[in-house]
Amino acid sequence: MSLTESLLRAAWPALMSNRFGRQLPGRLAPRLGPGFLAAVKKVNGERLARAEAKGDSVFRAYPGFITVAGTSRCNIRCEFCINQWDAQPDGSNRPHMKAEHVQQIVREVFPYIRKLALSVSGEPLYDPHFQLLLDEARRHGVFVEFTTNAMLVSRPGMLDRILDGVGRVNISMDGATKDTFERLRGGAKFDKVCANVKALTDGRKERGQPTPEYNLRYILMKDSIHELPRMVELTHELGVDHLYTNHLQVFMDELKDQSLVYHRELCNDMLDAARQRAAELGQVVVLPDNFDLSEPMPEEASPGEQPQTFEAAADAAGRERSAQVSGGAVDGDAGGHGAAAEGRGAPERPARPSEIPPEAYSGRCPYLWDQAFFEADGSIFPCCNSGGVALGHMDKAADFWEIWTSPAYAKMRADVYSPRCHDICVNCYLREGLPASEAYVRPVEGAAVGGW
Predict the structure, then answer these.
(1) Any idea of the CA torsion for 6, 9, 10, 14, to the nearest 10 degrees?
(2) pLDDT tens per residue across span 89-144
(3) Residue 185: which of 285, 73, 75, 72 has the closest Cα?
(4) pTM for the complete prediction?
(5) ∠99-147-78 over CA atoms, to 5°?
(6) Could you give the CA distance from residue 270 to residue 195 in angstroms, rounded to a whole number?
């Protein structure tokens, strides 16, 4: 253990007790160098890990990974994108982040984080703060990744910016042929995207550098599943490292038939063909497991009620669990936070779909302790699938720390593995222990905004 780490561990409670102390690492970093910042991040990470392991709802550490939406605008329009379906053609209802908010995030949070993602609801290469965020991340020793539609890679100077300061680039490509791709991704041009991706991979090769890592992201849906084997081939031809696939998020009735829950045999055939082609080419792909065709089809219902194949079992578990609830007390409530532990009756709450007991959850939530999402309008969200539920706003708090340690955040952490969890957590695949590629995730309609 270095002397710097020892001193930080001893001084940490005092450091975190006021705004000046929390901003001190950023002030000292230019003088003390990258080793000092590395020690700050290490100690902060250790405190985070202990807090999550213990289930602490309030603790003295910053998140280690943040996502910053410098813009919520996008230069294309995908009708299956939950973040852009309500966008005006001119982007007027989708703001860029205020410059003062960007500066506040850099000043307060960058000294502590190890990783930064520059994507939430818009196209990061459309972000007027993109270069500033890259420069500050490099200065603070922060790994950067982003997800892009790759249309703007050919802008003057953009390729060099990416090659100079980014660790990972995820490229969204839904469709392996021009017709399918351009039909699903309105405004995007297939040939241009392919050329831009090849420029990225060729640029890395020409420089002889290991980064950025390049990944293609492919949404599995009825209109694109038949091109999955060809997508494996295209990934290989473009020199991309990995092909990642995820099932479509069903967030409105119009998308329901696109879910492969209703086209399971077709999906299984294409997954098998893609695996075979990947093995032949030596291409790394990440695919979900095949559907079990012996399982019954999900009941006919709206996406807000039955979008997930595992929800029938979850509903049954929830009904069984509800029989154990009596007098407002819940037997076996996780973490000792329940009504029985507190000696008072739990308030009534309406029935919710698929609520299962905490002991049934095999997954863990990485967001409430280690991650935070900064939306372009200044809102702070707990995760990428929050359904518009903000826990604070940068214009309505002294700093991010006030939001991060607020009662709203503390309650969400305390309840996440209990039957009293927030509405947005009820059907989360992370609590079910599912891989992201197998999940059918969407915000819960009607969840209330809280915390500010």
Answers:
(1) 140
(2) 555 666 789 999 999 999 999 999 999 999 877 889 889 999 999 999 999 999 99
(3) 75
(4) 0.82
(5) 100
(6) 26
